[in-house]
């Protein structure tokens, strides 16, 4: 009886330790500037703060149109507010979303205009301490940057 209980407990611990994979169906994902062709991307394997580019339109890629942009979220992990430092060549319009572990939008700012070199401060004091996905969608370039952020 004891051995069955120990075996059951061991199987339960193994199942819990695997966790839940977060998968995204995307045609093109670019980690750190490298283009990959992929149908299925596992977001749960990404490191904290690493930014990925997802091309939302097949005909446009960040390297083809000459208007590459990047974003650096800091500090990460954060406690009250998060800064987004944009590296862009031109004025651009973005949508900023923060998504919780259950897939709900907990923050959404549409039609934010970003100047070259601008840093945007997001007041996130109302968020509970947890792991979130930060999604920044460029309206003019049809690309999305996604990274994991954590509130302490």
Residue share in helix: 10-25%
Q: What fraction strand?
A: over 45%
The strands making up the biggest β-sheet line up spatially as 3-2-5-12-11-8-9
Strand element count: 12
Radius of gyration, CA atoms, in whole angstroms: 18 Å
Protein described:
The protein has one helix and twelve strands; from the N terminus they run αββββββββββββ. It has a seven-stranded antiparallel beta sheet with strand order 3-2-5-12-11-8-9, with no helix packed on it. Strands 6-7-10 form a three-stranded antiparallel beta sheet, with no helix packed on it. It has a two-stranded antiparallel ribbon with strand order 1-4. The radius of gyration is 18 Å and the shape is elongated. About 14% of the residues have low confidence.
Q: What is the topology?
A:
Elements: H1 2-18, E1 23-25, E2 28-31, E3 36-37, E4 40-42, E5 52-55, E6 69-74, E7 81-88, E8 92-99, E9 105-114, E10 119-123, E11 131-138, E12 143-150
Antiparallel strand pairs: 1-4, 2-3, 2-5, 5-12, 6-7, 7-10, 8-9, 8-11, 11-12
What is the structure about, briefly put?
The chain has 152 residues and is mainly β.
Key descriptive features of the protein:
single chain, 152 residues, mainly beta
